[in-house]
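Task card 7
Instruction: Convert sequence to structure tokens.
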Amino acid sequence: ENKKDSKGASYSTYLDDSFFCNDRSSRISGKNIYYGAYDRNYYIGNRKPSLVCPQDSDKFTVANEKLTYPVGLITLDEAAYAGGVYGTNIISSYYLNTGHNYWTMSPYDFYTLNAHVCYVVNNGKFSYDGVLGSYGVRPVVNLVSKPLISGKGTTDEPYIVVDQ
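Output:
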């Protein structure tokens, strides 16, 4: 919040308070409760990632007081749009494949007393684990609609917000 660009404007002026979606839409199958990200991204041959948040109660913003700062975690759907996959033996090569395991904010399932969350594996594929797994995180922010940006969004040339 206290960092400023070369013109003295706070970097927070580049951030938009758009929502981060913790999609908890669900269906019950036997003793399992499966969440939306699972249904959209884990069925081989029927992947349909989405950036739509199906339930207003799952939208997290500073304005609705579910967040203190406009920072969230990446969702499984966002990682899927970037090139991530589940259930393949091919190492997935895309810019979010960091070589490290990291959590998404997308729940996977709940079975008896076990909650599982989706994560990106160190080879870029998707998996899920109990909430006690110790992985990294991939924080994300939403930018205002017209910031000046340089770069290509790749590892070698990441996006950089430049002075307006």
